[in-house]
């Protein structure tokens, strides 16, 4: 499947020299199954893998169904697979663009908004169903409490902490708050900086407060069909802000012309893992930023997902 950009806003401000890309969004057909297939592709084990014995590889590696292989990998390396899933954008994530970026032809606009409505409906039903399954009995309260109101403050805090840590070269904070797939290129960009070069970053203010920040997507999907398989919880929050960045040389002097202010809108994706055995939620991590969904891109992704689901 083609990958959609998940580039942090700092890339365009020369604080980041590497691109952080993540998988593209896909259609609403089967988010859970598509996520499992992606994980299977991302985690397919070679014969020399320490998680697979030689006899297993020689006799049954090609005969196991995707479901069996995925479940075996999850049981063998539960935390690793969960971390890999947390680095992915959940299939079916629909990030609606601003009104000015909607398709111009009326027919396309109506079909596009119709797809968005279908995705939001499916999103709500899936989240409600997962919450219902956390009920000990039908008459007791659900054990899982989503606390949707904390999503926006969490996304803003992670977004700001990451930008400040990247500017300061704080490797520990980046590793702590970012997903594995995102932290790797960010840490590499720190290592690639000219010796003695320092950066400064400041969030001047949040802008367009009438429309931002806002939750563009909030999805939950188990990473396998196993009853106790970890559940990925992902949210995309659109944040509009004015930011300032500056560069300093090895002597600590301001580099002329390096100070810049810009207004940016970023779709910040964050995620966490929920353990269905206890319904405890791990800490949120920053996945990256994703582009808004386009009419053309959505149609392409739907066809790609259909082809992937038809594959043996």
TrEMBL record:
Residues 47-71 are annotated as: Disordered. Keywords: Mitochondrion, Transit peptide. InterPro entries: mtLSU_mL45. It is found in: Mitochondrion. It comes from Chaetomidium leptoderma. Gene3D superfamilies: 3.10.450.240. This is Uncharacterized protein. One of its GO terms (cellular component) is mitochondrion. Residues 50-60 have a biased composition (Polar residues). Its main location: mitochondrion.
